[in-house]
Amino acid sequence: MKVNFTETILRDANQSLIATRLPYSKFEPILETMDKAGFYSVECWGGATFDVCLRYLNEDPWERLRKIRAKMPNTKLQMLLRGQNVLGYKHYPDDVVRKFVEYSVKNGIDIIRIFDALNDVRNLEVAIDETLKQGAHASGTLSYTTSPVHTLAKYQELAKDLAKMGVQSICIKDMAGIMGPQEAYDLVSSLKDAVDLPVVLHTHSTTGLAFMTYLKAVEAGVDVIDTAISPFSGGTSQPATETLAYALRQLGYEVDLDDKVLKEMADYFKGVRAEYLADGTLNPISMATDTQCLTYQIPGGMLSNLISQLKMMNALDRLDEALVETPKVRADLGYPPLVTPTSQMVGVQAVQNVLAGERYKNVGKEVKAYCRGEYGRTPAPINPEIKAKILGGDKEIEGRFAATLEPQFEKTKKELGDIAHSDEDVLSYIAFPKEAEKYFAYRKEKEENVAKYTIVEA
Ligand code: CO
Question: What is the mean pLDDT of residues 54-77?
């Protein structure tokens, strides 16, 4: 049996270990080598890369994608898309979702991994439909979590819904790295029973479970696993590509990776890692094992947010109470998977409940919107009493929230006029207006400087 590998160094490993701070110039020299490694795909775009390119790196994310495409003609390029949230944190109108998918594919993406924080398939269907229309591979994704309502039967049902929409693979996204080996075995087996599609597993090494989790997933017939080249593996990133290739071959599985190429990649990224360790961007602690998530059943990133929130309010002594309150809030809100943006909502609400001395006395606007149904259908119903308290007289929306949003692309394009040089610029602006404006100004200045310089030289 063959096991395929998706390499995450350019996206998730980069995002999880060094807050996505890899500029294009830092990995350009290795792209042509990576193209020969034999990866099933290279995850290189989407997630936080888009935002960070504009916000911190003064890079056009679209240009980055085109450059990667040109250097890696033989490898499938993959991106992560938050369904109706595209790459942001709110719901966008359908025309924006469609344009974003269209231009992602036009600029070089082959596989789009599409997920929704609540696993509400209505938030996935437009992105999936457009991906298929553009001739790309739609990987329908299940956001993994554990709760009394997240049963194997429920995941099977979800996978079947995605299959009906035409996705070419099913991805299990364990963003918190909490999936254990037995859970992986059971879930992959049930999905294999439910649908006739390749199954992909994504997890993180945070708790140290990932190698075992992948091994049991492989035994259950998983088709693709996500790994990171060794210098950027482990801890909050993925387990090491070379280690899994070695172990799986030893166990008799077929692995189509070129070890010489992997070694060249590892040597190259060791140098990059040294630079980020030296300047403090890479904190060695993030590469270590942290089992707190197993105790609290909340993702590591969320735990550090809780701590910093309490510190800011001079209430760190209430951490234990907040940790007890967190799963209660999650249950009240219908057991949402703890991933952006629901992890923030649940964490902030738990802290507010503890500090106010009365539960749901103070409620943020995100939680109100969540209760109105603006994020989609919750996995289990929201506790009705609490919902009534939060909504007051406010009405819940019926149907799909995005259907209530006015088309935005053409209107924004007109408003931007010459500021936008392309449709891609318009999409950057819609996704991150402030950051895109800042980047456009930087680009203009750079162009003017080049013009000035050219004149002087002439
Ligand atoms: Co991840």
Answer: 98
